[in-house]
Design goal:
Chain lengths: 88, 556
């Protein structure tokens, strides 16, 4: 299993659109991927799940992946979050 | 409850009918239906897919920010996690609506716990999305045949569903006379009342309802005597229709022999049967929006429809109006002023892929040379030039044996003011009196607060019609009038007096318009032209028309 922590940098946090992006990126990988925040762990491939985290700017989330492409999956998602989902 | 309770509304479609009430949006009934378990989930899935597809399709033109929001909503509707959550709700015994609302509510409540205001604001959006889905679920409640459908309002697809299901009548709490849902009901002569206050609360499911479409009235749970009088009206109506049917196949000339062309406006390919029923006539307007809304957007599927329809109408003309989308017609399209926004030709020029496929289909379908192509909602010569350039491109690609005639709808006052210039650029023009009235008088015909100002016989509109007719004559091109004005005697008389010699009306008014024209004399009409053109109010116009009717003993 690969695990990485990352902090939300975009102003609006993980609202609907970023949640969609997370799920879309996660769905490209075979590995099982979860995102956790404050003890709530959800399936990263579900838009609804990711939205349920309600991760605002400055909060920290943990991405966990296990499977054949876990390293790439974790890296791709971390990069997405660090880039602020292409937002400000 | 008391018997014989009467309710009143605005008639949309004439006709009398008796049937059992069916409350379209009654959720209790939805729940008691045989929908449970897998079947319920299958239907929810279908509704979610449909909503997601519609949102995706209609969001293409939206500004980027709103488009992103729509994309996110689409993603939620399609999300396996969301659907799983809905399924769990169903399994725990909730109704389909409750399951959807509950699943969405879980997201909304989580969003509300956020410290960020932006997130909390999104909660409401989730809730309205849930409402939209539950509406769609309720809207697809299966309509049994022979009922009187009671609902708040009706969309195009719901109206089509009602027609196919064979409803006897439709009663709406809101609605508008010229909304497209209402137009479809009228084309199919389904008695329809709108603006019936509290209808969905007062009328119980299953109760017998008698409707008098012309009188704008309905009776709930009628007693024997009332029922008898309605049956009598139904018989009278049948008689009137039989009289009109005698006009089938007769050439339409005025009393002194002037030929007036009466054509039909059609909405659906299947309506070609209505043209055949009257032993053929031209189609002055084939609205293609329903092809679009029912997914027939590919060139080949349109080609098939246009070719078959043009052949059926031959030797008369068959006029294809390119997609008039936008405003109220594209589901999910949010504009502050849709009627001043991305409509008609503007939409088409923004979507050259759709536009070109449609033009190619129309040009290729013109095998017999009787097909015409018409652009909707043109407002400037630049727009027309752009559309014509695309049309030329298509013609070069297809190199057809017969070049279709090219025309425009005259619906925007700017085209009236520039009528001479436009007339030199096209092969024909068609005045759309509904929209022209709306834009000339700046009245939203669907807004009940101002709809009384919507008067097709307003002198401002009539002077516009006259100007366009004269411009057409000067340029040597035909000008027709599209709309229902000609279906009553005063309207037909006014149009003829303004020099109109081509009409296109909805199918139920076709024979009626014909009957009016057969009773008129062009010389009489010419007599009142100047008075009509110098009238100050719609009342003046009507008074003059009625004076002439009385003076000349005109009977239609």
């Amino acid at each position: 299993m690969t695990e990485k922590q990352v902090t939300i940098v975009n102003t609006l946090g993980i609202h609907a659109r970023p949640a969609t992006l997370v799920a879309q990126v996660a769905q490209r990988f075979q590995s099982d991927i979860t995102v956790e925040k404050d003890g709530l762990e959800v399936n990263a491939k579900s838009v609804m799940g990711v939205m349920m985290l309600v991760a605002a700017k400055g909060s920290t989330i943990t991405i966990r992946a296990s499977g054949p492409d876990e390293a790439e999956a974790t890296e791709a998602l971390v990069k997405l979050v660090e880039d602020g989902f292409g937002e400000e | 409850m008391e018997r014989n309770r009467a309710l009143y509304g605005t008639p949309v479609s004439k006709g009398v009918a008796i049937g059992k009430a069916f409350l379209r949006d009654d959720n209790r009934n939805l729940r008691s239906e045989t929908l449970s378990g897998d079947r319920a989930f299958a239907r929810i899935t279908a509704v979610l897919d449909e909503a997601a597809n519609e949102m995706r399709e209609s969001s293409r033109l939206l500004p980027l920010e709103i488009k992103r929001m729509t994309e996110a909503q689409v993603a939620i509707l399609e999300d396996a996690g969301f659907r799983e959550s809905v399924k769990k709700g169903l399994e725990s015994g909730l109704s389909p609506e409750e399951s959807v609302s509950e699943a969405m509510e879980r997201i909304a409540m989580r969003l509300e716990t956020s410290s960020a205001e932006y997130m909390r604001e999104r909660a409401e959006e989730m809730r309205s999305l849930a409402k939209e889905i539950t509406r769609l679920l309720a809207g697809t409640r299966k309509i049994p045949p022979g009922v009187v459908m009671v609902c708040e309002d009706i969309t195009v697809s719901e109206a089509l569903r009602a027609v196919r299901a064979g409803v006897k009548a439709v009663i709406m709490e809101r609605g508008a006379v010229t909304s497209h849902g209402a137009i479809i009901l009228r084309d199919y002569r389904i008695p329809t009342l709108i603006e019936v206050f509290e209808a969905t609360n007062v009328i119980d499911e299953g109760v017998t309802v008698a409707i008098d479409g012309s009188g704008g009235m309905l009776v709930i749970d009628p007693d024997e005597e009332t029922l008898a009088s309605f049956h009598e009206k139904i018989a009278d109506e049948k008689k009137e229709q039989e009289d009109l049917d005698k006009l089938v196949g007769i050439e339409t000339r005025t009393l002194n022999g002037h030929r007036v062309e009466v054509m039909m406006n059609l909405d659906l390919p299947e309506e070609i049967a209505l043209v055949e029923k009257v032993k053929k006539c031209g189609v002055g307007l084939f609205r293609t929006e329903y092809l679009f809304l029912t997914g027939r957007r590919e060139e080949e599927s349109q080609l098939k429809v246009y070719r078959e329809m043009a052949q059926a109408v031959h030797p008369y003309t068959f006029t294809v109006r390119t997609f008039d989308l936008g405003g109220d017609k594209v589901v999910g399209m949010q504009e502050a002023n849709p009627f001043l926004g991305m409509r008609g030709i503007r939409f088409l020029m923004a979507r050259p892929d759709l536009f070109k496929a449609q033009l190619r289909a129309a040009v290729r379908a013109n095998e017999l040379g009787n097909l015409r192509v018409m652009f909707p909602m043109v407002s400037s010569l630049n727009e027309l030039a752009g559309a014509k350039a695309l049309f030329r491109e298509v013609v070069e690609e297809v190199s057809p044996k017969h070049l279709p005639a090219l025309g425009i709808m005259v619906e925007v006052p700017s085209v009236v003011m520039m009528a001479e210039e436009f007339a030199r650029e096209v092969d024909f023009m068609s005045i759309g009196t509904n929209d022209l009235t709306q834009y000339t008088l700046a009245v939203d015909r669907q807004n009940f607060r101002v709809s009384h100002l919507y008067q097709q016989l307003d002198p401002a509109v009539l002077r516009g019609v006259r100007k366009v007719i004269e411009a057409g004559r000067a340029a040597g091109i035909p000008v027709s009038v599209c709309g229902e004005l000609a279906s009553d005697l005063a309207g037909a008389l006014v149009l003829l007096s303004l020099g109109v010699r081509e009409l296109s009306v909805s199918p139920p008014n076709y024979l009626r318009a014909k009957k009016m024209i057969l009773s008129l004399r062009v010389e009489d009409m010419d007599m009142i032209r100047d008075s009509i053109l110098s009238a100050r109010t719609p009342e003046d116009v009507r008074r003059m028309a009625h004076w002439l009717i009385k003076q000349k003993g005109i009977m239609a």
